[in-house]
Amino acid sequence: MENNLNEELKSKIEGMIKEEGLELIDFKLSFYGGAYSLRCLIDYAAGGITIDKCAELNRRIFNLLDESKLLGEDFTIEVNSPGLDYPLKNYKDFLRSKGSIVGVWLSNPVDAKTYLEGEIIDSNEHGIFLKAKDKTYNLEPLNIKIGKARLDLQK
After folding, report:
1. What is the C-alpha to C-alpha distance for residues 94 and 100, in angstroms, rounded to an integer?
2. Alpha-carbon 88 to chain mean position
3. What distance lies between CA 91 and its chain's CA centroid?
């Protein structure tokens, strides 16, 4: 039952946000203390969602849940952007960080390095293109353990 509810709710929310040209990056439904808690991370494919857009979608999701009673009467909703501290795990995450400085930890060394830092030039399902100080790397997505956005205080 819980899994069906999770999938039904996720599908409804994905449909709603796709109409807005957004992507559902993370979805968590939990039950604690007699109430459901829903957390959605959303963003545009190229990044840049605003607080106002998150608030608007929070209201729309609340209205959907309030009318449908899918989560009963008592629930909380949180709609956020991924933020700077969200780990970059797949090519879509890196694409949202295009033009930003990131740190990347690798499973297998590239040029004898397991950590690279540089600007994301581009990203697709075949490669993450990272411009480091001395060269541009085409990194295989499966070789990336995790990436993290870095603050570039030089700009």
Report:
1. 9
2. 8
3. 11
**Neighbour order of strands in the sheet with 101-110:** 136-139, 127-131, 113-124, 101-110, 144-149
Q: How far apart are CA 56 and CA 79, in angstroms?
A: 9
In this structure, are residues 94 and 47 in contact, taking their beta carbons and an 8 Å threshold?
Answer: no
Give the pair of three-digit tokens for residue 15: 């449909």
Domain 91-149 belongs in CATH node 2.30.30.100? yes
Instruction: From 111, 143, 114, select the one nearest 127 (Cα to Cα).
Output: 143
CA distance 74 to 134: 55
Q: How confident is the model at residue 152 (pLDDT cuts 50, 70, 90)?
A: low
2-80 CATH choice from 3.40.50.1000, 3.40.190.10, 3.30.300.70, 3.40.50.1100: 3.30.300.70
From the centroid of its chain, how far is CA 127? 18
Domain positions in the chain are 2-80, 91-149
Query: What is the C-alpha to C-alpha distance for residues 61 and 3, in angstroms, rounded to an integer?
Result: 19
Per-residue pLDDT band at 134 (split at 50, 70, 90): confident
Nearest-angstrom CA–CA distance, 40 and 37:
10
